[in-house]
Model the fold of this input.
Amino acid sequence: MSLLDGYVPDNSVSKEDINNVKKDIEDIINKLTEEMLQHAEKMEFEEAAKLRDQIKELEKSINEILEDIDMAKAYYGDV
Done:
């Protein structure tokens, strides 16, 4: 099942909106990465590993969303 299932474009999502969301998520990933490294420096490896896993999940989600956006653009035109 894709995020596009049942999607009907209404042209309410702009490139600027997409870029803003991407930037926000990148900022979150950067913050989590900093926290992860701080925990690793303190030898708090379990906490560092939890953050690493969260980062991986966020990156996976971002890639899936971007793929869905690309599919929508290909199918519906520039959304």
